[in-house]
Amino acid sequence: MIGKGVSVLRVTLEAVKHIKKLRNLYSLYLYDLSEFSYSLSLNADGLYEFEGFDKVIEREELQPYFIQYEGECVGFLLLAERPFTATGTDYCINDVFILRAFRGRGLASDAVYELLQQRSGYFCVPQLQANERALQFWRSFYARHGIFYREEHRLIDGEPCTVHTFKV
């Protein structure tokens, strides 16, 4: 668990039960990521679609959570466990998404903090290298909470990524 930089949490994590809502949020998330990756494109219905979405719903090792703020869903977080993690890690915080209307309020930080209060072990966080905003978010989060992390650059699914690993 982490303790430095503790603030009163304003968000809760809710296990996903509404699959269609998660699918729709993923489309918005992938739309945002399309700014940094040429491999993302619209499907025949005009939506961005995650090829592995069915796995997210079917596999126990993939745990999606809605991020709730003041009783409203404002985004989601996807936590992966082995075998969907980097070698030597227990968990992977694979995706964190906050709807644009709620960004800049510290809600993503609160959601990650809440998750890390519930789990301990070795974590990895992969990000597209071109997504500087996400990389800065994570570096600031680690600094604020006194988390020592290691940074590596890897190709993941053909995309240049920065991968952070740390222990809590």
From TrEMBL:
Gene3D superfamilies: 3.40.630.30. Signal peptide: none annotated. One of its GO terms (molecular function) is acyltransferase activity. It holds the Pfam family Acetyltransf_1. Its EC number is 2.3.1.-. SUPFAM superfamilies: Acyl-CoA N-acyltransferases (Nat). Residues 26-168 form the N-acetyltransferase domain. InterPro entries: Acyl_CoA_acyltransferase, GNAT_dom. Keywords: Acyltransferase, Transferase. This is GNAT family N-acetyltransferase. It comes from Ectobacillus funiculus.
